[in-house]
Design goal:
Length: 253
């Protein structure tokens, strides 16, 4: 006798009802004791400031989320994978209360063979960073998540912002790879937008950087290429101007 069936969960007037297929009404009767087992969780996608992505990307995101451990709090896909046609890796942010980095990265690499930039953030810390950190806010301004998401109101944390300024400040004295200058300038623009109560939209941040620096120089530092002293001086002058405005804004509240 066939006493087992597989069917999608459907919506009824009472959630604790069990619907039996009509063709199996002889095998199951009202009052029978049955067992319900979850075979595969439906993966829902929630889009935040993402207008449209290809069917391929949407399908890939569903597969990535389905592979993640069920005990995680929330997962996000962000970065160039969503907002550009060309991308080097896939930015995946996972919210959980302890580190699962090795386990998750190994599973993703084995399953997809793609390069991932994996960031795992404890739930408690994540909730705070969303309010006080311009970099976190810009990272998640465009995202696809497995749960609903909205950016909370900003809260200015002077100590945290001063911490974020340390790297750009160091570049006024030390010489390092040009990519660090690229990242620091984007950081400064994100902080400025945050303090101006402007959207920390990474697309607008990139446009703001393009307005400051010649395109060929921008490409060079983005690719971490060698730069001469003249370009180095120009980059440091831009950093000084941004730092001066931010410091003044923090001082005056």
């Amino acid at each position: 006798m066939k006493t087992k069936f597989v069917h999608n969960v459907s919506k009824g007037s009472r959630f604790n009802q069990i619907y039996i297929p009509k063709e199996m009404k002889r095998e199951f009767e009202v009052g029978d004791l049955v067992e319900v087992k979850l075979l595969k969780k439906k993966t829902r996608l929630f889009f935040y400031n993402v207008r449209e992505i290809s069917k391929f990307k949407e399908s890939l995101i569903r597969e990535i989320f389905a592979l993640l451990p069920s005990k995680i709090e929330q997962a996000f896909i962000s970065g160039s994978f969503l907002i550009q046609s060309d991308y080097n890796d896939i930015d995946l942010i996972v919210i959980f209360n302890k580190s699962l980095e090795g386990e998750i990265y190994s599973a993703l690499k084995k399953e997809f063979g793609l390069k991932f930039h994996l960031l795992i953030i404890p739930k408690e810390r994540f909730s705070n960073l969303l309010k006080i950190c311009p970099l976190t806010r810009s990272m998640l301004y465009h995202n696809v998540s497995n749960k609903k998401f909205i950016l909370p109101e900003r809260q200015v944390d002077v100590k945290h912002l001063q911490f974020l300024l340390m790297m750009p400040e160091d570049l006024l004295e030390i010489r390092t790879g040009s990519r660090v200058f690229y990242d620091s300038l984007r950081r400064l623009i994100a902080i400025e937008y945050f303090l101006r109560n402007k959207d920390e939209d990474v697309i607008k941040i990139n446009a703001g950087l393009e307005a400051l620096i010649r395109k060929d120089i921008l490409i060079s530092i983005k690719n971490n290429e060698e730069i001469n002293d003249k370009i180095l001086f120009k980059l440091r002058e831009i950093i000084k101007i941004k730092l001066k405005w931010i410091r003044l804004k923090l001082k005056n509240g």
